[in-house]
Amino acid sequence: MNPISKSAKLANVCYDIRGPVLDKARQMEEEGQKIIKLNIGNIAAFGIAPPDEIVQDMIRNLPDAAGYTDSKGLFAPRKAVVHYCQEKNIRGVTVDDVYLGNGASELIVMALNALLDNGDEVLLPAPDYPLYTAAVALSGGNPVHYVCDEQSDWMPDIEDIKRKITPRTRAIVVINPNNPTGALYPESLLLEIVELARQHQLIIMADEIYDKTLFDGNVHTSIASLSEDVLTLTFNGLSKNYRSCGYRAGWMVVSGEKRHAADYITGLNMLASMRLCANTPGQLAIQTALGGYQSIKDLVAPGGRLCRQRDLAYELLSQIPGVSVVKPKAALYMFPRLDPKIYPIEDDQRFAYELLAEEKVLIVQGTGFNWRAPDHFRLVFLPNTDDLREAVGRIERFLSNYRKRHGR
Question: EC number(s) for this protein (predicted)?
Fold first, then answer.
């Protein structure tokens, strides 16, 4: 029989957070080996539960959640998102501007599918959250990566962005707070990005899924609050701030100058209708989450679990010879650098594979986030302090052996 091949549209699609190294980890687990997983921000897997009032509200409403909703979602949670936008100083948002989705991921793919023709370009950060690169490619577009500068706390390089804007550029993606680096962008930088979008008539796509996961008293500014005359799509949801990854409850807000975007918005509405609606139980969690006690503040405060784990991971990694890391101001990740003079890595996926095989620790290699060189990896600091100490200890042992093997 003739082989059945995957679509050619998938040729440039990659998502290494759940890639070949994870496949090897699954095989090892099936053999009875215990793996410490630092590869994905699956918060519930580390014993950090969602707020109880969200769970109870879903339970109470579940008997009435069997039917389809409006294609954009239920009115009450969309109204709650409007109120949240007002808290974030995003002006001019109505219920009709809010789309609920099966997590922000579905809406990101939908927004790019509605926008891109073959050959259109989207500016993406490097490193990025790889869904964006994959979704742009799957939509027929060309992902163009602008550099975020590690020496400047992973801030986007504005001059590099300017150099990469062409007549085919349609949008710029801003991930703030950032995954995988934990960077948090100041208002002054966001204003520069808005000005570039204004000058070149670009759509701003703002991923703000970690906007409450902030450390050291830092404050998040929504770029949509600064871009009233620029079409802006803001993506957010319950997965991270409310520890509810599996509920798949996210939203997209269309704000800014919308008059010239009527046809694009029609496209968004078409795609929203085609998937019928987002899952209803997940929608039912949104209003309660946004209006309830914000327990994330306890987790990120000094002495809170996430803050303690961030500090410990940073301290332990910084003590390893040849490893440097920018201390995250937000989110759940670190993106450590391995000095190429000490760790001459040519294939960082192979590096991640060898770490898994030797020490049973699963991380994601830096090139999996479209970073240009095989000299970084991403680590989640979600395990409790004892497990985190054990995991980084194993990484340290692996790196020590790596140095010995390479005469460093």
Answer: 2.6.1.2
